[in-house]
Design brief:
The complex is a heterodimer of chains A (301) and B (272).
Chain A (H helix, E strand, L loop, with lengths): L1 H8 L7 H31 L2 E4 L2 E5 L3 H6 L3 H33 L5 H13 L2 H12 L5 H8 L11 H29 L4 H8 L4 H29 L3 H6 L11 H11 L3 H31 L1
Antiparallel strand pairs in A: 1-2
Chain B lengths: L1 H28 L3 H7 L10 H9 L2 H32 L6 H14 L6 H11 L5 H25 L3 H9 L4 H12 L1 H17 L2 H6 L8 H11 L4 H21 L1 H9 L5
Helix pairs in contact in B: 1-13, 3-13, 4-5, 4-7, 4-10, 4-12, 5-7, 7-10, 8-9, 10-14, 12-13
The chains are: A mainly alpha (301), B mainly alpha (272).
Chain lengths: 301, 272
């Protein structure tokens, strides 16, 4: 049966070893992924239905861990902080990245330097990015304090105040990831067809009209993909917060990933943390798939 | 004329926003702790390399660097070899029940889930296998993560290569696998390079799993070691900034070296 299907569908496949070839080529990768990612995923599901004490399971609790999440004020707060963080950072990055891409679309001197320099923030180790920003925000050794003192002001306090620390975290993320948004959108702009723009120029359309009627509508799919990619990524942000604020002050910057990590490794509530992570995984997957479906519909129309 | 001036000013502004924070990191790393906290200078008045020397003589940064290089090399190399084969199978063969497409979609789904979601069970797995705080534990984990996107990226590169060339090689007596190895793989080299570079970046910079899976300089990677330094001595700004420079230098240098491929890897998919 298998042989028949293949012979019909594929003139390329020969006999003998070549028949088994696709399976042999897929097997090693799949085995590693099944062992190291899928088995743990399954194991995490099982752990999420148990109560743990000092790192070992003591009782089956069914879905109780999942139910408990929604009355846990700290969980709900971390979820809210995460949503705020993602929404604010990603929209700022999209706007700035788009503006930057439009700015760099026309060749001019210095553009190569600019593009090279813009690569740096997104390739630097996230842990180091957090160090960079601690050095900016610190009230004693910080760049902001040094600048303020050089201009006759006093020390600047950022990470001690909940609101300022949160904004400080958003600024870090925007600094780090606007360049990626910029690169994707620039590639998108460069791949747009020339003809409509030339026609618009012949018609004497102004810069704003061209942007609103041509550039923006044509860029919508790329923009949407870039935003979806960044949103998924931003949801899992951990390293930068861990080093910059460790979630504080109070719970002001405690993203869901930090809360989950603490629940598991600091408070040793393995089962509860597993339920938390399964929930997050499902939320992100649901987000991603509805985004993909939406994009397909936009594509089709 | 005025647009040109505006353009120059904007360029300078962007350069300043990106580079000033990095300047401050490097400049702080060249000062003594006294100069940093008490004098608040804008550039190092008495430049010193002491902070860097201390990292390697007292803080085991040599081990961290070795661990990072070994772990990154093996997990990227294995993922590339294994991933290239899988990607080729998905790109070229039609299996019963559309199996090959389902495998591709499955790997993409795994890629979308934030890694932090499986942190706990991976930790428990490595604990039960006795692989905590070892190269092997990190290599296994990173290899698996790398495979999920290597397959996905390379599949699209293989699709761009015409089948005719392989057919010609097979008419000349090559086996299918031989045609893949001798014809397709070399033709896909730029795409493989872009994939490899992206994998190196992600792996070298990874922190979360290194945090949970390693505990001593035996296996700690650069980001992990740097973070340890910060946890222990909160106000040793001098060491912290030097650690930041050392931690970022290899990867930034690497990224600038392979810039063109890097941009291709980072932006691919999104535009297609």
């Amino acid at each position: 049966m298998q042989g028949e299907t293949q012979a019909r569908k594929h003139r390329l496949q020969g006999a003998g070893l070549d028949l088994a070839l696709p399976y042999l080529m897929l097997a090693p990768g799949l085995m590693i992924v099944l062992g190291v990612l899928v088995y743990p995923l399954w194991d995490g599901l099982r752990a999420s239905a148990k109560a743990y004490r000092y790192g070992s399971p003591v009782a089956d609790v069914g879905l109780q861990n999942y139910v408990r999440l929604w009355s846990d004020a700290q969980f709900l707060n971390s979820l809210w902080v995460t949503v705020k963080f993602v929404a604010l950072s990603v929209s700022l990055e999209a706007v700035l990245g788009f503006a930057l891409a439009l700015f760099c679309l026309h060749e001019f001197r210095g553009i190569r330097l600019l593009r090279t320099v813009l690569i740096i923030p997104m390739v630097i180790t996230p842990v180091v990015v957090a160090i960079v920003f601690r050095l900016i925000y610190a009230s004693d050794a910080g760049m902001l304090t040094a600048l303020s003192e050089a201009m006759g002001g006093g020390a600047v306090q950022i990470l001690g105040s909940p609101l300022k620390a949160f904004i400080g975290l958003v600024v870090l993320d925007v600094w780090e990831w606007t360049p990626l948004m910029f690169l994707i959108l620039l590639a998108g702009l460069q791949s747009l067809p020339h003809e409509p723009f030339e026609a618009a120029r012949v018609d004497g359309a102004g810069a704003w009209r061209v942007f609103a009627d041509l550039t923006f509508p044509m860029m919508r799919p790329v923009l949407a993909v870039a935003i979806v990619l960044r949103t998924i990524d931003a949801f899992g942000t951990f390293d930068q917060v861990f080093v910059l604020t460790r979630g504080g002050p109070g719970e002001a910057t405690r993203l869901i990933s930090i809360y989950g990590y603490d629940t598991a490794f600091k408070f040793q509530q393995t089962g509860y943390a597993a339920a938390l992570f399964v929930t997050i995984g499902l939320v992100v997957l649901a987000l991603a798939f509805s985004a993909i479906r939406l994009l397909r519909r936009v594509d089709a129309s | 004329m005025s647009t040109r001036l505006a353009r120059i000013l904007t360029t300078i502004f962007i350069l300043a926003v990106v580079l000033l924070p990095i300047y401050w990191l490097v400049s702080t790393s060249l000062k003594s702790n006294r100069e940093i906290t008490q004098e608040g200078t804008l550039y190092p008045h008495v430049p010193t390399l002491d902070n860097y020397v201390r990292l390697f003589t007292e803080k085991q940064f040599g081990s961290y660097l070795t661990n990072s290089l070994v772990v990154t090399f093996f997990s990227v190399a294995i993922a590339l070899i294994v991933g290239a084969m899988g990607a080729y199978a998905i790109a070229r063969f039609r299996l019963p029940f559309g199996m090959e497409r389902k495998v591709g979609l499955f790997l993409l789904t795994l890629r979308i889930i934030p890694p932090v979601v499986i942190l706990i069970p991976v930790y428990l797995l490595m604990l039960s296998l006795g692989l905590l705080d070892s190269w092997l534990g990190l290599i296994a984990t990173y290899t698996a993560f790398n495979i999920t996107f290597c397959v996905w990226m390379m599949e699209s590169f293989f699709r761009e290569i015409p089948v005719d060339l392989e057919e010609a090689a097979m008419v000349d007596g090559d086996s299918r696998f031989g045609a893949f190895r001798r014809i397709t793989l070399p033709l896909a080299a730029p795409g493989l390079a872009a994939t490899a570079i992206f994998a190196v970046l992600v792996t070298f910079n990874e922190f979360l799993f290194a945090l949970a899976l390693t505990a001593t300089p035996r296996a700690m990677t650069m980001p992990r070691g740097t973070a340890t330094l910060i946890g222990r001595i909160d106000t040793d700004w001098a060491s912290m900034s030097a650690a930041g420079v050392i931690g970022a230098l290899p990867i930034v240098f690497f990224a600038l070296l392979v810039q063109r491929h890097l941009v291709r890897g980072l932006t691919m998919g999104a535009v297609k």
